[in-house]
Amino acid sequence: MAKIGFIGLGNMGGPMAINLVKAGHEVKGLDLSSDAVSRHSEAGGGVAGSTGEAAIDVDVVITMLPAGSHVRAIYLADDGVLAHAKAGTLMIDCSTIDVQTARTVGEAAAERGMDMIDAPVSGGVAGAAGATLTFMVGGPDKAFDRARPVLDVMGKNIVHAGGAGNGQAAKICNNMILGVSMIGVCEAFVLAEQLGLDHQKLYDISSTASGQCWSLTSYCPVPGPVETAPSNRDYQPGFSAAMMSKDLKLAQQAAQSTGASTPMGAQAAALYSLFEAAGHSGTDFSGIIRFLRGES
Ligand code: NAD
Questions:
Q1: What burial class does residue 207 get, using C-beta atoms within 10 Å of its C-beta: 0-12 exposed, 13-18 middle, 19+ buried?
Q2: Ligand 1: centre distance to CA 98 (Å)
Q3: Which is nearest to 5 in space by CA: 58, 71, 64?
Q4: Distance 184 CA to ligand 1 centre (A)
Q5: What is the CATH number of domain 3-163?
Q6: How crowded is the C-beta side of 271, counted as CA atoms within 13 Å?
Q7: Which of 6, 11, 97 maximizes ligand 1 atoms within 8 Å of its Cβ, making it the mutation to test the pocket?
Q8: Residue 171 is among the residues annotated as catalytic for this protein
Q9: Residue 238 above 90 pLDDT?
Q10: How far does CA 15 lie from the centroid of its chain?
Q11: Pocket-forming residues, ligand 1, beta carbon under 6 Å
């Protein structure tokens, strides 16, 4: 069993860390929120009083933080993880962040003789609790091989996408497809409504025709056709518009820095920003259909 420092015990990190505790690992948790730390210790986890304490004398450091700025600070600051961890410690960053930060921190870890992977997830809070997350991993083969048994405890689909940063690249490319396809499906239903075409009829036809995609058949944005979709529970997330907006902005940041042409991704990012500005950050991202209809 491994000694693990786990930093960021929020909606995702909390249940992920508890799954590691349940599997018998010794997990020192750290969070700015005392409630999050209490939940971790009540589940049998240990507590670290500082970043240094979470990184000292462990085999693995795992981070699950809000954004790239937090990840840079936690790893690279004078009193951060890299300053305290011993050479050979394995670093796993599961946060969703920009590709450049993932590469910068991965290089800094390698310079100090540490193995590091970026391992963002999909599957949401339910996947974190049920240990069914998908991990998209970037980093050297050796680091991936070392991390695999730890990731297996928290997820069920672990994919090595290439070198440092490629886990983040896979995550934002996938979610750009998702954002664009969701808006496309929503627009088709809005047009069908205006044309007098029944939701279920459009679903039955498009779900077996060339319009078929995950946003339609697994997450249908109108109530009825897909029982488990958030559209059947007043667009409670699910995957919030704020999360989608964050990932689309990261995709646009990457597109601008690489010169990739992503006009549909840019439109999707702009629409989700407007949806958020209209007060819907906490609404499921499929709820953007209401915004496209002009509903408040
Ligand atoms: P969250 O805000 O619930 O958790 C983040 C935690 O990090 C908070 O508890 C916060 O107190 C802690 N934190 C921040 N700075 C810290 C510091 N300096 N030291 C210690 N703790 C610190 O967010 P979340 O929903 O758990 O998401 C975490 C990451 O996972 C994000 O990057 C998000 O984009 C990604 N993600 C979330 C979901 C989801 O459905 N929630 C799905 C996929 C990916």
A1: middle
A2: 15
A3: 58
A4: 29
A5: 3.40.50.720
A6: 25
A7: 11
A8: yes
A9: no
A10: 14
A11: 7-13, 30-33, 36, 64-66, 70, 74, 95-96, 121-122, 124-125, 243, 246
**What's the pLDDT at 56?**
96
Ligand 1 site-directed mutation target among 34, 61, 65, 248, most atoms within 8 Å of CB? 65
Asked if 232 and 223 touch (Cβ cutoff 8 Å), the reply is: yes
Q: Are 203 and 269 in contact (CB under 8 A)?
A: no
Residue 236 DSSP symbol: -
Smallest CA separation from ligand 1 atom 31, residue: 66
- CA geometry: angle 220, 222, 226, nearest 5 deg: 45
State what percent of residues in the chain have pLDDT above 70: 100
The arithmetic mean of pLDDT across residues 36-63, rounded, is 98
Across the chain, mean pLDDT equals 97
Give CATH 3.40.50.720 domain extents, the chain: 3-163
> How far apart (Å, rounded) are the C-alpha atoms in residues 70 and 105?
12
Find the 12 Cα to ligand 1 centroid distance in Å: 6
Can you give the pTM of this predicted structure?
0.95
CATH class of the 169-293 domain in this structure: mainly alpha
210-231 pLDDT, tens digit per residue, is 999 999 999 999 999 999 999 9
Among residues 3, 142, 156, 171, which one is catalytic? 171
pLDDT exceeds cutoff 80 at 296: no
